[in-house]
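Components:
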Amino acid sequence: MGSTEDLDYPQIIVQYSNGFLISKVMFTACELGVFDLLLESGEPLSSDAIAACLGTSTMGMKRLLDACVGLKLLAVEMTQERALYRNTEISSIYLTKSSPKSQYHIMMYYSNTVYLCWQYLADAVREGRNQYERAFGVSSRDPFGAMYRSDEEMLKFMAGQNSVWSICGRDVLAAFDLSPFTQIYDLGGGGGALAQECVSLYPNSTVTIYDLPKVVQVAREQFVSPEERQISFHEG
Amino acid sequence: MGSTEDLDYPQIIVQYSNGFLISKVMFTACELGVFDLLLESGEPLSSDAIAACLGTSTMGMKRLLDACVGLKLLAVEMTQERALYRNTEISSIYLTKSSPKSQYHIMMYYSNTVYLCWQYLADAVREGRNQYERAFGVSSRDPFGAMYRSDEEMLKFMAGQNSVWSICGRDVLAAFDLSPFTQIYDLGGGGGALAQECVSLYPNSTVTIYDLPKVVQVAREQFVSPEERQISFHEG
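Structure:
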């Protein structure tokens, strides 16, 4: 769309206005398990069947599914009797929980934490600080204290970061040739997905993840297998 | 971007994830008055000057302005000493409060009402109803009772609807030739912007706006001048 057309009808402004609606449609379909159900079923399903399986309103689910079709996150096949929905390829790879490249966890973090903080973006700009206090009643003087305000929140954040590294970690690590370095430190390495990409890309490297003690504890318990000899931890 | 590239790196998923951030950057720059200030000043301003005029944090404002530059809502000129920001043409037309095509009011409605309701989209799909109760503590059985929960909220909604009609009302009305009709009813005509587009496009028509009594009262007082002889009201 050229700028002349934009001045006549502000396509870009309308798109920007609708951005949050698009985010929330995708986040919500993930949260409710639409893509997981369609992956597991192995066949296209009607909106009634999806609503029944996921325990939602039939009308609400139909509208959500049709919005996902509009966004090309689902495809629909029209039969004489009804519409049948199935995942697009991109949804199977990135929006299902079990996929190695799943973005589910970062979306849940965006949807349930970041989205609400950004409700107060005007206050953030006025005050020059993050908005955990308004959004969650948690003091924001210590950013990691706010982000890690409970073990559950910390776990969500770590899983979310791991989602991101699973799709772009390799590109980051391959931007420079790190093969001469055999001892690598990952400061704030969290759940270890970047470290895992690193030892995969540079098989002669060992990576030490440096992070807060409670982060290291969770990473050891839930994210990095003890058999992973090339990855170790340092609490600090 | 082709689908093969998308399968390798999910550009579309990342864009959809970021949608709400883009919406909130634009909404917030509108709410804080960035575009209005730059229109009034008549010359490019530094981020420090903008922050001082608008009473915000300097760092917070600089980040907001740079985000707007990335979205092409502002342009920046680099001098040896500092960066100077100015409106792009599209921002002057659509994002300033005083412009005839201003989208300010619908953005404030989206940002402060719809955005928060959509925080609960998963609940909305589960329950098959809107989320005014969770977002604002207002029963949602009567949709207009929830939307018009205060005179201030009703006014915001009416001003927002008028913003939208100011850019697409004429196209809607021109989709069919309505010139044979001289008596036109606008059911739920609210603030009257569509009626005004109608009498402008069809000078021989008269339009009767039909709406709730309290909506009609506000429309008469604040939106439709008594001199506008071609527009009348019907309360119902």
